[in-house]
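Help wanted!
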Amino acid sequence: MTALPRIRDVGEFGLIAALNSVLPHSARVNGRVTLGIGDDAAIWAPTSGTTSVITTDTLIEGRHFRLDWTDWRSLGHKMLAVNLSDIASMGAMPVLATITLGLTGDEHVADLEELYRGAVALAEPHDVAIAGGDVVRTTGPIVLSVTVVGEGEPLLRRDGAQPGDRLVVSGTLGASAAGLRLLETPDIGQGATTADLLVGAHLRPNPRIALGKVLARYGATAAMDLSDGLLGDLPKLLAASGVGARLDSRLVPVIPAVRALFPIHWLELALRGGEDYELLATVRPDALEETQREAAHVGATLTEIGEIVASPVGQSMLMITDAEGVTKAVPEGAFDHFG
Amino acid sequence: MTALPRIRDVGEFGLIAALNSVLPHSARVNGRVTLGIGDDAAIWAPTSGTTSVITTDTLIEGRHFRLDWTDWRSLGHKMLAVNLSDIASMGAMPVLATITLGLTGDEHVADLEELYRGAVALAEPHDVAIAGGDVVRTTGPIVLSVTVVGEGEPLLRRDGAQPGDRLVVSGTLGASAAGLRLLETPDIGQGATTADLLVGAHLRPNPRIALGKVLARYGATAAMDLSDGLLGDLPKLLAASGVGARLDSRLVPVIPAVRALFPIHWLELALRGGEDYELLATVRPDALEETQREAAHVGATLTEIGEIVASPVGQSMLMITDAEGVTKAVPEGAFDHFG
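Answered by r_m:
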């Protein structure tokens, strides 16, 4: 029996050759990217009449992922998906991605190929070229850093929300956080046919690219993607726009599987769980119906969960109505990654 | 006495606020970047009639830098400079940079501010906006990952060298590697007034942006920047172009300080040392003189060190003439970071 080759066995250039072999030509260049991996930089032609956007997100082993919880292909999907979600929240279409791998050399070459297959499987349907990157050696933990460039016109920002706008959220919230709990405490989901669904929501989030484009075209005044939980992220949008909001927690969409497996904590998971990668947006009241209809055409639901109000003086910018119909101020402060 | 605050004391948002405070408005947005740090992505307007380029480079503590050898401000310069050098080698002008920091939380806030000051001091004269990034927590080593977008027309690639072209290199080679040796073995440089010059070449390389633009406009057929040493990088250009080269080592420009402090190894440092971040280019013979003249106008020298020949069959693609005038084949294979 031959042991599976590790990166230290094949070296940097062997790894790059292996990764290139799982990148079909169509995933390296596209109509806009004319020079991909292999030069000092990648070259692309921006589409005339549009503006460009760039975002970057990094996953650290042990902090953002655990190799005993995720397969490598799902990890490749996720490292790209979290960046595509940022592009979607701007109402832009992704053009290219660069991928930086910080590796110890102990990893199996076949695992890194799986990582790339996961990224390619998400990139290809969105016509995103994997245009370059960097491979560096580290003593660990593993570092996966992805940058994505997109473009579009018009684009969405966080700072355009106006009093009177309706607050909407795509899909449902809490499934990713519920999936993470199941990974942490497998006993909870034992025997539940929905456990895989929830774990899948955590490991392979679905970036809302088509929906972001719909929001940019129809009536949305501001948008962002939900990575730190609704109550962690919404205050950022409110602060950027200089407004307040009233949020009715009874309207927050949560799938039955989350309620069933977490009968006590399901609302907490939906409000604070994080990593949903759904879009949060504000929409002019007169545009709400049309925007929801257009969202349905790209397979997305947009649920109204509250409204934007004028910037409050001397009180919390966010008021939330709880399950009993009681409205309270939400304490300020998002999740702090060093807290 | 109060201890200097560490990142874990001020948290993620405290760090971001501190870094923003050392980024002047002019370093966050510019004529093209209209939305910088603070949204899901940065927005910029590509210049009509140009194409865009993107490159990314990552520095890992202990592997690419040591905190007992570099000050934080130099490190901030270098993490941006190595990326700007890639942009320069494409003949492009840089537009924006994103910076990702992987930190343990133990670092002093003041040190990270110094890192940003070093980046800003290099970014501002080149009108490069620091447009975004990511801060993530790691157990260490520290990770510094920078991505730079540039644009221009025409652009330079590695694959355009033709037989008969002259091989030229900017500046001088070996000073950075000599500086690294002095850091490793301080005894060598003791008392030498030139030690600081060499160490500075290693810690604060100078990206050749204006020269790259000159090369793209006048006669260069291919270019790349030198990070892995002349004998490590030149074969990559030759392979991309499908040509061979004859290199005369007696013509390679080396400053007297390198020869004086390393009387035995100076040529080895110049040929294989790495991290010079000078530009290597191929130039049509009839364009050589004008290109050298225009290079001088932007303060750069271009030294002819060899010529491109037709792709050899059954022999090394690179022949080198040594100090004794003897010509030999160079063994294939660049420096392998996992080797």
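OP: Thanks! One thing I noticed: The mean pLDDT of chain B is 93.
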